[in-house]
Amino acid sequence: MPFNIKQRGKLTYYSTGDRPVLSALVTEAQLDGDLKIYFAGLTGGHSATGVLGLDTVTAMDPEKEIPLVFRSWEKWLQDAGLCQSLQEIDFIEVHAFGCQPKAPNPLVDPLGYAAEQKRLREAYARGYAAFFAEHLPDHGLPARFTVHLTDVPDTAASYEFYSVGLLQRSC
């Protein structure tokens, strides 16, 4: 689906639908021609499945979900005509919101629940580090903020991410 584009001064908003509730991307023009890009919150579960048109939903698997989020952001950049690859973006910050395990029930199996929490957090750490090492090895690492929540609206997801990056025209 093509983006609805609305520009106001140095900000450009990229959204979809007839009555959008948020923008997928917001760009802020810098004086030197660079673009600061704000990437909307996204999960590697139902969200990425929809953006990427996938046949299956990834659930509670951070090592698979994290690359799907970044692939979705890359698709948005392409769809918006901003650039062709995340290789062109320098991420400044990434905010991650970790969900609690969907199972087992903490009241029925508290030790199993604690073990699943530990598994998810370790998988997230591996998946996040692996993404930057494997896909953006020549880039600097963004500042990261991670908080663990009870849940997010995407019932399949283990994490939701939003980010800010810079498209440096001079690089």
Give the helices and strands, then pairings.
Blueprint: E1 4-8, E2 11-15, E3 25-29, E4 35-43, H1 46-52, H2 62-79, E5 89-98, H3 110-135, E6 143-148, E7 159-167
Parallel strand pairs: 5-6
Antiparallel strand pairs: 1-2, 2-3, 3-4, 4-7, 5-7
Placed side by side, the strands forming the largest sheet appear as 1-2-3-4-7-5-6
* Oligomer state of the chains in this structure: single chain
Distance between the termini: 30 Å
Which of globular, elongated, flat, extended, rod-shaped describes the shape? globular
Q: Please provide the ordered H/E string of secondary-structure elements.
A: EEEEHHEHEE
Number of helices: 3
**Helix-residue proportion:** 25-40%
Structural class: alpha+beta
> Rg from C-alpha positions?
17 Å
- Low-pLDDT runs of 5+ residues are none
Mean pLDDT: 94
> Main β-sheet, in a few words?
7 strands, mixed
Query: Approximately what portion of the residues adopt beta-strand conformation?
Result: 25-35%
Please provide the count of β strands.
Answer: 7
Structure description:
It contains three helices and seven strands, in the order ββββααβαββ. It is of the alpha+beta class and 171 residues long.
Q: Key features?
A:
alpha+beta; 7-stranded mixed β-sheet
Condensed summary:
This protein is α+β, with helices and mostly antiparallel strands and 171 residues long. The chain contains 3 helices and 7 strands, in the order ββββααβαββ.
